[in-house]
Amino acid sequence: RSSRRGFTLIELLVVIAIIAVLIALLLPAVQSAREAARRAQCSNNLKQIGIAFHNYADVHHGLPPTAFGAPGANLQMMGGWGVQILGYIEQPALYAAYNTSFGFLMEPNQTAVKTVVATYLCPSTPRGMNPVNNAPRFTGSNGTPDPNLYAAAGDYFTARSYVDPFGIPPSQQVEHIGALDQKLYTPLAAISDGLSNTLLVYECAGKPDYYRKGGKLGFTFPQPNSKNASDRWFAHGAWAGYMNMRIVSFTGDQYEYDGPCVINCHNGWNGVYSFHPGGIDALSCDGSVRFLKESTAKSVIKSYVSRAGGEILDASQW
Questions:
Q1: Which end of the chain, N or C, is surrounded by fewer C-beta atoms within 10 Å?
Q2: Whole-model pTM?
Q3: Distance between CA 211 and CA 67 in Å, rounded?
Q4: What residues have CB less than 8 Å from 19, skipping those under 6 apart?
């Protein structure tokens, strides 16, 4: 009579161990493939934004100013470029819902600014499927936060300028001006360094949560010299807001200026940050997207931000 012999306990444990090893070897490859797909989507978002900027420039004879709508001394209370190009990223109804007589922080614009715009979100940012950040924002000169006012997040910024060193008196700083003006249209001819050599949009993802070197530490504090955790002013981090910052270098945290780090130091004030391993996606003024490595030299970033500095960039510098 034939007999059937099953697995011994040792054999079963060996098979389980082999399967566990194979899964451990396969998992990083799966994660890498997923991140590659997310980064490709992020790059495509920036390409769509670049096309929108150019279509806007064709109609208005220049790139949009970074502050938009209700006039006021504080530009950061006004709407930003994200509102102005809505009609060119297939969002004309959302643009029509935005009331330009009021700042983006105000009640009449809540319906518009609460709307999630997928084009303004990098899929690598760890906010899950709900990108509406409900941090309270300052709504008055007394700084009283209103917990009933919210806004949908955005991960992309334009560069006002590059300043290094930054931690010195403003009168001694040299500011290398970026592509967009704060109040005026910018003709493409004004970008004399070349459209392919000038930065237009870059990533500073994850706001209003504060990340430093990949670790989440709390909330961002976008107001200079304010480290109070209650200061959750959302002017920076909402796609409809004033998504425009200087780029500077850091030694560590967001108030520790003039060090070796520019890319992926943190996502706070003046930060350049993404959740892509090793660097960020950046949109040039010609509509092309390139990947800036964390190791990119400060001099190269300065030249890339500057629109009319006369610097020469070549492929060997990236």
A1: N
A2: 0.84
A3: 26
A4: none
As a whole number of Å, the CA-based R_g of the chain is 23
For 250, phi then psi, to 5°, come to -140, 155
Is residue 49 a contact partner of residue 118, using CB atoms and an 8 Å limit?
no
pLDDT tens-place string over residues 251-289: 998 889 999 999 999 998 899 999 999 999 999 999 999
What token pair was written down for 248? 């500077």
Look at residues 85, 84, 272 and name the one whose alpha carbon lies nearest to residue 178: 272
Query: Looking at this protein, which amino acid is placed at residue 60?
Result: H
The Cα–Cα gap between 7 and 301 comes to 62
What does the alpha-carbon distance between residue 255 and residue 118 come to, in Å, rounded to a whole number? 31
169 by DSSP, 3-state: which? Answer: coil
What are the contacts of 59-63 at 24+ separation with CB within 8 A? 60/185, 61/185, 61/187, 62/184, 62/185, 62/186, 62/187, 62/188, 63/179, 63/180, 63/185, 63/186, 63/187, 63/188, 63/200, 63/285
CB 166 within 8 A of CB 254: no
Report residue 291: phi and psi, to 5°: -100, 120
Q: Which of 160, 151, 259, 260 is nearest to 202 (CA)?
A: 160
User: Whole-angstrom Cα distance, residue 96 to residue 85?
Assistant: 12
8 A C-beta contact, residue 212 and residue 204: no
Q: Angle at Cα 140 formed by Cα 136 and Cα 141, nearest 5°?
A: 125
What pLDDT, in 10s, does the model give residues 93-149? 999 999 998 888 788 898 999 899 999 999 999 875 455 554 545 554 455 556 667
What is the dihedral sign for C-alpha 176, 249, 235, 243? positive
Nearest to 301 by CA among 265, 275, 272, 268: 272
